[in-house]
Amino acid sequence: MKKTALFLFFIFVTSLSFAQQSTEWNKNYVTFSPLRIIDFFNPGIEFAYQRNYGHFATQFSAAYLMGISTMGAKDISGYRFSLEEKYFIPRLSKQKIRLFASIEIAHNGISYSKEKAYIAE
Q1: Where are the alpha helices (DSSP H) in the chain?
Q2: Is 33 exposed, middle or buried (CB count within 10 Å of its CB: 0-12, 13-18, 19+)?
Q3: Which run of H or of E encompasses 53?
Q4: pLDDT tens digits, residue range 6-33?
Q5: What is the pTM of this model?
Q6: d(Cα 27, Cα 98) in Å, to the nearest integer?
Q7: What 3-state DSSP class applies to 20?
Q8: How far apart are the first and last CA of the chain?
């Protein structure tokens, strides 16, 4: 129930936000990803910085992993850092979405507890 309420809250909050229309892309972006909290493997809150140059961009992101129980694990805590290089595919004439291909390296520092039952023979 708690996960469902949290999910609906974030959907509602993000539906109230909107972006500006622009014909040019900014060189620097700072992003906040609160919906990462519903990630099944590494739930948390993420901040990222992206620097654009030509058809390429480099993004550094850091996430604080939260203590939400997923996949049978409990008391999840830790961090995640990643570095991603993106190549933006040249846009067609009136295409609003920038398609890209990327490669990413990441480091997770996660601690959690998990209960298991064993049957002795």
Answers
A1: 2-15
A2: middle
A3: strand 44-53
A4: 666 666 655 555 555 555 668 899 999 8
A5: 0.65
A6: 14
A7: coil
A8: 38
